[in-house]
């Protein structure tokens, strides 16, 4: 993965250096948007008394466009052919070298040049589209306008969604549910071992599902919440961490921990245990993996729970005069939006209070021992 990132960064530097200094990304995107909207508006302005069944041509045409996009993307974009030589170079050669799975967002607007199709392509695409409109208009003007307008709408949807799939993760559009899912599918498509065989759909995964090329892996959850608490304890760091890093002791000092399933004593890296909890007003069960144990210094473990809950727990001890300072850092996040909302409104403050109470309880238990 690091090798891919390094290669992509090097390619980006070379590619950007070769972009003409007069290239204007806003003019590029603005022309495509204005051209498409202008002709869609004109075509649909010609509609008269559209029958309900005629509107079905819009989704049908969008599915047809998606089928065509899938075929072109898979057979020309990822296979070297005489007919698609230029497209193959621009797509597999440039686009897939500029963007890899772990390096998907563009960094400046000038990077749109490697995301958007050349501006002239929408004009070229519109020529056979208008030819189809002219032919269909001899049969039914409404059907002709709906078909041609929907084909242009499909083209613009491709450009828009594809651009969203390369937005920075913090951009508001990136957080929209549909865009978020398509961003994940597209990132998997940019994985080296998958790009020639999986996830060719850009706007939706229907064609990949029908052709058996759909590949999905859940994205690692971003741990949206971070809480850190400190307490000074008049005991040696080695003793404090040895006690705290023994999950079997957690019910003695942490109010959220109900029961531990695992061996006694401090656990080391690669060991596992399970825990029944009642945290933030909710009962649950966690499966823990110990990641790190450095006696008298650091202990870390991660956990998974229900509703896509993931946690990262870190204990650290810093020697101070008369004892040590114990630092507890809890990072957690939920995969589902309902649980994220519940956490924001109710659970987070309760978990904060419970964590604060645990620090005092740990202090009292160790001082009395």
UniProtKB/TrEMBL annotation:
Keywords, sorted A to Z: Membrane, Transmembrane, Transmembrane helix
Gene3D superfamilies named among the record's database cross-references: 3.30.530.20
GO molecular function, one term: iron ion binding
Record has Membrane as a keyword: yes
Transmembrane portions of the chain: 22-44, 50-70, 114-136
Residue span(s) of domain Fatty acid hydroxylase: 60-213
Gene Ontology terms describing biological process: lipid biosynthetic process
Protein name (record): Fatty acid hydroxylase superfamily protein
